[in-house]
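Report of the visiting student (M.T.), summer placement. My assignment was to run the structure pipeline on a short list of targets and document each run. The first record concerns Elongation factor G.
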Amino acid sequence: MARQKPLSLYRNIGIIAHIDAGKTTTTERVLYYTGKKHQIVDVHDTKDGKGSTTTDYLEQERKRGITIQSAAVSTEWKGHQINVIDTPGHVDFTIEVNRSLRVLDGAVVVFDGVAGVEPQTETNWRLADQYNVPRMCYVNKMDRIGANFKHAVDGIKNRLGANAVLCQVPLGSHDDFIGMADLITGQGYIWEGHDKDSKWETIPLAEIANHPKVQAFTTSADKEWIGNLAALREETIEKALEMDDEAFDKLLHAGDVETFVKSGDFSLELLKKCIRTGCVQGKLVPIFCGSSYRNKGVQQLLDGVIDYMPFPGENGGIGLVDEDGNVVGEQGVVDEAPARALAFKVINDQFGTLTFCRIYSGVIKKGDTLQNVTRGKKERIGRIVEVQANATKDIDEVRAGDICAFVSMKETETGDSLTDPSSPVLLERMRFPDPVISVAVEPKSRNDIDKLSTALYKMVKADPSLRMEVDKETGQTVLKGMGELHLEITIDRMRTELGVDATMGKPKVSFREAFGQMVEHTYTHKKQSGGSGQFAEVKMIFEPGEPGSGVVFSDEIVGGRVPREYIPAVEHAVTVESRQGQVAGYEVLDFKARLIDGKFHDVDSSALAFEIAGRACFREAQRMSKPKLLEPVMKLEVVTEADYLGDVIGDINRRRGSISEQGQKGTNAFVQGFVPLAEMFGYINFLRSATSGRGTFSMIFDHYEEVPASMVAKLMEKEAK
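After the run finished, the structure tokens were exported:
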């Protein structure tokens, strides 16, 4: 079957933001205005469990009023196919944003008009930078008390480093928010009411100041925007035309923007083309505004998605890599090429497995066999479905640029490459964060013992930011994740989705260890018990590395003091042994191991003997180096009323934290700082009590830091309980 729509009419976009900026509300409006649904459900109406928004359909999402897992929906707007992924804003579920951005062509970043740029927005922005995803910004909630468009735009420019181009500015704020001025078309849109089907009046930019609703504005900031509309439009046009050398030359020749706009060389199509060029190349970030809850601005945002977001492949394809992850080529998004797809998400439930894939090239049909190059297995495609959040629709084939799900794949996991068996290649994977917190998990009843490990395996397979292992000493099953909420919801989803009840132990911190100083150490392994013995001697220097440098092994043997065939065994020994340090059995980070000398025996030496010597040398050297215990330190932001700030800061200091910044965010005060994760369990209970329930906080892993010597014994005793 031939392609139904040209690739240029497709948009694969994600909606990303900090928690509570309005992503799900915006997605609901998108589905309503594109005719995909006929009734809007608001997030605050779902907590009774009776209804749900389209993308927040999990029981846990309805109860908490937050997005937990990314959900895909497809819709149409003005002849364009738009595939939308609504992602979570909570830091514990950053993995969902990570893997979504890997496969998307563009992202709409939503901002709370009061709070502006928030911590999780910064994290998501860095992820989008990492995957080279073009972005446009939508400043939402302009109807809220304290909404400040200038504050949000300044944050986008200064904190995120974006080259922002204003496509719209708000007309009014809070109760006075009536619409927006479109600096691209040179028109104002003024809504008649707040209803979802409310119409808007379109008037020329020059006439906005005389409109009765505009003249009723009460705040000087709102009036200032109106007074500057002409200058702002000139600035936007100039910034856009810089993206096109020929257009910019004509502007310079005209002398000023006003003259150029009146000339025959200027057109709306040229202006949009220039902004699109800058956006697709990542040089410009268009800014829109509105209030999704009050049904203002979503249709214009959709127009912006079509005008400025890239179609699949417009800003490049996906990297092809070798087994070590080094990029060796690029796969463009075309039908006329071998089939190549990346699995970016796996969902398990009682009815089977859904493997979400982005198709980068070729055509995949029902019944085809694909090669899972990552795992060296073959997978037969039984069913292909188009996903509408929790509903599916069977389709016969998918093509380059599509996002779909394959049903009941047995071997494929998140990040795996699926390709035509005759042309196997590895596609560039996502990069997943390491878990920072762990809990012991036990079944609630003896009947669930066997089911528990199966259920945990399914959850871990679906979420790469989870890890499961069995503690060798206690025999307990340990689940590691990104935060208390992450682990709590995982256990709850096992109950609701897989029918397995489990209890969670007290959270434990994932500490790390490091060498305290440089150590040179020689270890001789000698064993003689009749027959051939074992002999190996290694002389090594271990030295601390820079944070983030990882484990570096250096072979500095000269003159054949250790035969070449035994050196990999020593490197393997150091790598394996570094996973369990000598302070408290935690992984050892960031050091360089230099093998400088050694001895061997013609008969008794072997790779095994050198591996044993390497392991023992590492253990003894780490003990001799005055090793350090490292703990994860979180970047914390608390937003609350100014009256409570003193109590919040005092508490952060008591938790061994440090303050890095404080100031105003809208009508509230905020404080930012760094606090050890070990001191942060149950923090929400303190914050609710200290701020009468008005305070909110967000927390993200920042770095590892040495535990003060006086605290090591106390922390280890606390962890052992």
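The CA atoms of residues 16 and 84 lie 11 Å apart. Residues 607-624 form the longest helix (18 residues). I thank the supervising group for their guidance throughout the placement.
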